């Protein structure tokens, strides 16, 4: 069986486009007492105005924030409803709390206008179609803003470490106005250290503060405060096991041209490799005004970098007398012993802004010390997601380590404990999160597991990172790293599995850039290659065919050869593209006729695996409604009459709404060859303009699982439809059909 064959590429010529029409025409309620409803809403508007004027602080031109509740069953996210109630009424949605509840803001003058308008809205059919469905309006209460983990803090006398999420109801981009608020906060809380602030991607401001717990409710009562949360700190674990020998005279393999290797930016506490190995560090990046490493320790970063650059077999390379690098790295030494989320947001955003043109893979091997929560994506996880979306890069992070192995005697008990869930920033939906396995492929006892936020597919991948015994016993399995003193040593943890994934991802990205992406016309090729690389790593992972999704080891471990190439009996198609709202795209792929020769009743002989990864923008403050959009999928085979037949997995398995990964695999015993189809449709939040595009990558594998090693690849290749060398990106003008559908 021949391997190492190039994947096939689906061009625009094998797609077909139509346009979906979504309609929602709001109508007034029938037999509804709108006069009584008008009186109630009017009183509620005046209560909102009164509450917004009670403040400890002076903020010029601040908008009024309040809560608006629609009738049960009415969806804020329906575009027609959204435009009528919010956009047309001059209301800005600041956060969505549920299907029918939102936090909104407006100028005080507009709120007063709405209060007057409400008094006689019943005279207009158009106005009734709006306000009949608004159940109530109320101030946004302090209790709703304070995270439940802080609920008991108010009764204590201690200071508490918090992040205050401030709404964009005034111009905090104006440094003078921002400083005015910070000065007032400092006056109110004189024991407060310097307040760290960071502008977030969802038009909010994070302020890291330490305040008396007794002041929590008072601060939450402020109109400009959207949420008060506990602060996350990020640590990188490194444990000295032993020293196996000095590498002071270590040499690099002379056959490798380091400058031609892919690049990984390692955001850590510095890198100090022994001997000539430091030449694999391209350079040391400094933040503006940063004169030296923030910690200067290079304790964690050196170990991480040695694993990323040289892989697993460091001891073997040392004995051979030469180390062979897989990648080169940029040293980004911005980490200290404990790092707050707010501080890291500013620093990492600057790092990516400065480096994204020369580096598409970033490794951040740090985690919060506690699991993520289901209330919202973590602050840092959301901001890394926004950088992936904005700059077209990949972020690799560990899932994190827990210490539950010290309390249990079985892995089933460890995994069932909620404390074993992934920790920030690995909960970011666009981030490539990496867990740890032992050399035998078992989940490491310390490795955090999924699923992720909103039951998203987490972890992404797993790589060897060592293993430790249960029940606090001695011993364990360790991986080889170099330390800052120039010795070969051993360690364990997800900090040392994730570097292997980062190196592979950089290698795959470079491959995609030089193969698939170079055929793209009028596209950002680095962005295209980055997203294709991530999708390929997932689609070709060792557990990608396992259904349902494995929330312990995700898509499994990646083998570079399998990722980069198809086989005679296992052919993969790839397509990168963008979609707009209402654009429905059908993608065609060939199931070759040669497979019909191995069909046998009741015995599966064909496997089709589908992975669609999309890269939307997101708003953390929206909680459960985090993503701004997603690509829905529908899978169709060919029946005996040559017509398309829907073959989606039952119960939307692997095809959940509002997730950025759709993945499923199906085995077939009865099937027809020919052009099978995958239909894609982009659904977006009503706040997203119709012309905005979402990036997506489609991967489809067709595999002979009969054991006959049927050469299906050659038949596909002979059609000359999907061969990379003949791929031409054209603006395919498919025929547009209008289709009436109910809006989601």
TrEMBL record:
One term of GO molecular function: serine-type endopeptidase activity
Keyword list, A-Z: Hydrolase, Protease, Serine protease
A family per Pfam: Peptidase_S8
Q: Which residues form the Peptidase S8/S53 domain?
A: 262-520
| GO biological process terms held by the UniProt record | proteolysis
UniProt-recorded name of the protein = Peptidase S8/S53 domain-containing protein
Which organism is this entry from?
Lacticaseibacillus pantheris DSM 15945 = JCM 12539 = NBRC 106106
């Amino acid at each position: 069986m021949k391997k190492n064959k190039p994947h096939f590429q689906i061009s625009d010529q094998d797609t077909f486009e139509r346009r979906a029409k979504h309609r929602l025409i709001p109508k007034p309620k029938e037999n509804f007492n709108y006069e009584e409803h008008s009186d109630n809403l009017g009183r509620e508007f005046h209560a909102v105005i009164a509450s917004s004027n009670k403040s400890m602080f002076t903020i010029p031109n601040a908008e009024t924030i309040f809560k608006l509740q629609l009738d049960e069953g009415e969806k804020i996210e329906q575009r027609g409803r959204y435009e009528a109630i919010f956009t047309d009424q001059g209301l800005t949605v600041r956060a969505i709390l549920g299907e029918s509840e939102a936090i909104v803001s407006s100028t005080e003058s507009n709120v007063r206008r709405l209060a007057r308008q409400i008094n006689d809205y019943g005279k207009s059919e158009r106005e009734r179609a709006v306000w009949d469905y608004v159940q109530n309006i109320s101030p946004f209460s302090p209790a709703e803003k304070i995270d439940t983990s802080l609920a008991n803090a108010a009764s204590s006398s201690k200071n508490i470490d918090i992040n205050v999420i401030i709404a964009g109801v005034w111009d905090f981009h104006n440094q003078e106005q921002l400083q005015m608020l910070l000065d007032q906060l400092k006056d109110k809380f004189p024991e407060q250290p310097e307040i760290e602030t960071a502008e977030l991607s969802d038009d909010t401001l994070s302020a890291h503060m330490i305040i008396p717990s007794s002041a929590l409710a008072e601060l939450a009562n402020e109109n400009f405060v959207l949420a008060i949360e506990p602060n996350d700190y990020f640590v990188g674990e490194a444990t000295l096991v032993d020293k196996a020998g000095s590498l002071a005279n270590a040499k690099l393999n002379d056959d490798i041209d380091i400058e031609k290797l892919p690049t990984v930016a390692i955001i850590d506490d510095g890198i100090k490799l022994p001997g000539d190995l430091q030449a694999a560090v391209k350079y040391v990046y400094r933040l503006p005004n940063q004169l030296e490493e923030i910690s200067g320790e290079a304790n964690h970063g050196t170990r991480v970098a040695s694993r990323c650059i040289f892989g697993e077999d460091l001891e073997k390379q040392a004995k051979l007398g030469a180390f062979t690098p897989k990648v080169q790295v940029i040293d980004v030494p911005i980490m200290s012993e404990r790092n707050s989320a707010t501080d890291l947001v500013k620093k990492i955003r600057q790092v990516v802004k400065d480096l994204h043109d020369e580096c598409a893979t970033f490794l951040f091997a740090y985690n919060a010390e506690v699991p993520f929560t289901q209330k919202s994506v973590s602050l840092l996880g959301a901001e890394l997601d926004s950088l992936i979306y904005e700059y077209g890069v990949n972020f690799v992070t560990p899932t994190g380590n827990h210490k539950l192995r010290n309390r249990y005697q079985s892995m089933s008990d460890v995994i069932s404990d909620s404390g074993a869930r992934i920790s920030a920033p690995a909960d970011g939906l666009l981030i490539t999160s990496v867990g740890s396995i032992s050399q035998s492929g078992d989940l490491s006892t310390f490795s955090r597991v999924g699923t992720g936020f909103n039951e998203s597919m987490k972890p992404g991948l797993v790589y060897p990172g060592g293993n430790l015994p249960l029940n606090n016993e001695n011993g364990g399995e360790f991986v080889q790293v170099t330390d800052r003193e120039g010795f070969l040593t051993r360690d364990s943890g997800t900090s040392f599995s994730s570097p292997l994934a980062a190196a592979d991802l950089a290698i795959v990205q470079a491959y995609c850039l030089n193969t698939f992406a170079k055929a793209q016309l009028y596209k950002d090729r680095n962005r295209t290659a980055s997203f294709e690389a991530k999708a390929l790593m997932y689609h070709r992972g060792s557990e990608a065919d396992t259904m349902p999704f494995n929330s312990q080891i995700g898509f499994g471990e990646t083998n570079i050869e399998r990722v980069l190439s198809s086989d005679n009996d296992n052919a993969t198609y790839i397509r990168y593209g963008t979609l707009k709202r209402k654009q429905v795209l059908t993608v065609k792929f060939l199931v070759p006729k040669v497979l019909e020769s191995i069909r046998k009743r009741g015995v599966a002989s064909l496997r089709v695996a589908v992975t669609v990864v999309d890269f939307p923008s997101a708003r953390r403050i929206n909680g459960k409604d985090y993503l701004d959009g997603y690509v829905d999928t529908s899978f169709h085979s060919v029946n005996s009459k040559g017509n398309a037949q829907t073959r989606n997995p039952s119960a939307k398995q692997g095809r959940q709404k509002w997730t950025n990964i759709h993945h499923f695999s199906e085995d077939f015993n009865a099937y027809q060859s020919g052009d099978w189809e995958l239909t894609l449709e982009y659904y977006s939040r009503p706040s997203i303009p119709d012309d905005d595009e979402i990036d997506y990558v489609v991967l489809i594998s067709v595999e002979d699982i009969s054991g006959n090693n049927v050469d299906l690849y050659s038949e596909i290749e002979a059609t000359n439809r999907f061969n990379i060398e003949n791929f031409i990106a054209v603006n395919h003008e498919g025929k547009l059909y209008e289709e009436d559908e109910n809006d989601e």
